[in-house]
Amino acid sequence: MGKIKDAAGTALNAVKTLKFWQELFVMTFGMAIAALAVNYFLVPGKLIVGSISGLSIVISGIFDLMGMTVKVSTVILIINAILLVMAYLLIDKEFGIKTVYTALILGPLMDLWEKVLPVSDILADGSTSVMGDVWLDLCCFVLLLSASQAILFHINASTGGLDILAKIVNKYLHFDIGASISVAGAIICCSAFAINPFRMVVVGLIGTWINGIVVDYFTASINKRKRVCIISDDYEVLRQYIINDLDRGCSLYKLIGGYSGKEQTEIQTLLTQDEFSSLMNFMKKNNIHGFITAGNVSEVYGLWKKHSHHVI
Question: How far apart are the C-alpha atoms of 98 and 86, rounded to whole Å?
Fold first, then answer.
């Protein structure tokens, strides 16, 4: 009973925070995008891209061949329920709980989109493609789904389904999240032979591969940081600005200039793009000179504050 009370108290405290409601909005928005992509670009043409949604279309199609009607959204709900247990046990509780929410609302959101704008109202007579071409449907689906996945991965959540398998592979085998999605998705794509011709299976495999690439691109863009290295005589002024104004950490390295033979100090730090701009403006405003290099970093682990409240 004590553990249950502690868990209930923790959950109640979380609900009272602004972070909880911000992430709830982000998760709902991200899943609304995913539901739109599946309902309008995947389901009408039975386009089987490597995802649980694609696998659900295959299973629903098999039931249709058997004379039974099972909605795609229902199959998604059942498969996600199984995978959610895996997420909770094999990844972490936060990821599992968030993914419970996102996975459970995908089916209902698909039904909501269908009520708002039925697919039948968009399709031309006899057509199974919203865009009029399967390749355009594929591009629209991949772009929308990849954006949704990247947004949710950024807050340690996912769209459920295949993302859970990809996250497990990413955590234990340390593959890029996009590569994990591509491998797992390719296996699911092959199940499409049960209901689709060879050409459509190939289209799905290509879409799965592109999905992995685009997810990595979006994820890297969202997580991008600047690794800034500055050699300057005013390194102490810069150190104070980085620590006190930008609220970031930094490292100091002693070095000897190869050309001048003079001992100097290099300061290194990781900043967001806005913080990097603030640092450059600070140096310009205070007439601080130095040798500066800056490169992009897509992943940061350890003591990194997601939000800096002192940037000016």
Answer: 13
Count of alpha carbons within 13 angstroms of residue 156, beta-carbon side: 12
**Each residue's pLDDT tens digit, 275-296:** 889 999 999 999 998 899 988 8
**177-195: pLDDT as tens digits:** 666 666 767 777 776 666 6
Q: In this predicted structure, what is the pLDDT of residue 236?
A: 92
Q: Which H or E run contains 228?
A: strand 225-231
Centroid of chain to Cα 244:
32
Distance in Å from the first CA to the final CA of the chain: 48
Short-list 15, 4, 18, CA closest to 309: 18
User: Mean of the per-residue pLDDT values for the chain?
Assistant: 77
d(CA 253, CA 275): 21
Query: Which tokens go with 73?
Result: 């959204």
- Which CA distances in Å does 234 have to 16, 197, 240, 285? 45, 67, 10, 14
**Cα–Cα distance measured from residue 84 to residue 104, given in angstroms and rounded to the nearest whole number:** 10
- DSSP state letter for 41: I
Q: Which strands form 251-256's sheet, in the order they lie side by side?
A: 251-256, 263-271, 225-231, 291-297
Instruction: Give the residue from 171, 250, 170, 211 showing the smallest Cα distance to 51.
Output: 211
**The overall pTM is greater than 0.85:** no
CB 25 within 8 A of CB 181: no
> Which residues of the chain are modeled with pLDDT < 50?
2-5, 7-8, 11, 308-312
pLDDT, residue 62, reads 78
Domains and CATH numbers, the chain: 2-223 (no CATH), 225-297 (3.30.70.120)
